Amino acid sequence: MLTTQKKSLKAGKYVSTNYVDNIIRTYKQERWVHNSARIGKEDSLSSWYSIEELEEFIEKAKVHGADGIKFYFAAYPSDFTEKPEYAGRQTLALVATKSKEQEIGIAHKDLYIQDGESINILAYNAGRLCPPSCPPPKGGDADDWGGVGVTIVDKGPDGMIII
């Protein structure tokens, strides 16, 4: 009997608290502070989705033949009216993908599906951005979001902040 073994497409790995703390701190110091200054308000630091909605998206992606999901870094336009508090802030767009072997390696192509009479990308967005949608922690203030990556950021002549 001939059996074919499916090649794993896994790309990520589990990481430690220190690892996550370090990459979030690096992001805040090297990107977030500049993004916030450029847009004139604190940029988002995270985008939250419930497990329920992620499972629904993953199931729909699987039904349509997807074998992965890309997380695109994105930003809402400055005139975003659907949620004005999100205008100008960064976000994540989740896009279902299908792997395709090519001469130079495996490509992870964005997946488009028939949606009624049109063809659309199979994507998900509009998570809960923090800021602006993050409540202050118990006994803290709105600038203290807690968790990993707590960072002192030097804003030059504008002082220092803890995020």
Précis, in short:
This protein has 2 helices and 10 strands; from the N terminus they run αβαβββββββββ. The protein has 163 residues and is an alpha+beta fold.
Defining traits:
single chain; alpha+beta; 2 domains; two-stranded antiparallel ribbon; 10 strands; 22% helix
Ends apart, CA distance between termini: 59 Å
Quote the average pLDDT.
85
Instruction: Name the overall outline.
Output: globular
Return residue spans where pLDDT drops below 50 for at least 5 consecutive residues: none
How would you describe this structure to a colleague?
With 163 residues, this protein is of the alpha+beta class. The protein has two domains: 16-43 and 131-163, no CATH class; 46-129, no CATH class. The protein has two helices and ten strands; from the N terminus they run αβαβββββββββ. It has helices at residues 17-39, 51-63; strands at residues 46-48, 68-75, 90-102, 105-110, 112-115, 118-121, 123-124, 128-130, 152-154, 160-162. The strands form four sheets. Strands 2, 3, 4 and 7 form a four-stranded antiparallel β-sheet that branches. The relative contact order is 0.18. The mean pLDDT is 85.
